Amino acid sequence: MNDSLSRGTTSQGELDLAKAVRLFPVRDGEKPWSVRDVRAVADELMSDVARLTSELSAADAELSDLLRNSGDGAGDDQADSGSSALEREHELTLVNNTRDLLAQTAHALARITAGTFGTCESCARAIGKARVEAFPRATLCVECKQREERR
Predict the structure, then answer these.
(1) N or C terminus: which one in the chain shows less Cβ crowding within 10 Å?
(2) Which residues, including other chains, have CB under 8 Å from residue 71's CB and lie 6 or more apart?
(3) HEC states along 20-88?
(4) Among candidates 60, 42, 67, which has minimal Cα distance to 132?
(5) What is the mean pLDDT of residues 40-60?
């Protein structure tokens, strides 16, 4: 992702963004995407990348500590062992969820750069500007998402 999105500078990246924005589809009745609209979404996504990267680092460190200390409780009773296992499982889930969210965020930024942002990855129609503004990681339109969830 080009840093010119977040700095608002006029450069080749800005010109590329202006071209790409024209390709972003909208549904009937929606206003076309503007560079300002996309920059706001990209800024939010880049902020999320920084936050998620920090959270992932902290969660990885916590998980490493839990795994390193998992054999220390030779005198622990079953309840303590079960509690430790539950805590490790919880941290592992947090790490995996954060990694998934970080990957989705990076994918959304890549879609902006590629000019496919706002396009449903299933049917190639517009996802809907309001939906994408509310959830910038969306890759499916409402209809395709509902179909996917019914499976």
Answers:
(1) C
(2) none
(3) HHHHCCCCCCCCCCCHHHHHHHHHHHHHHHHHHHHHHHHHHHHHHHHHHCCCCCCCCCHHHHHHHHHHH
(4) 42
(5) 93
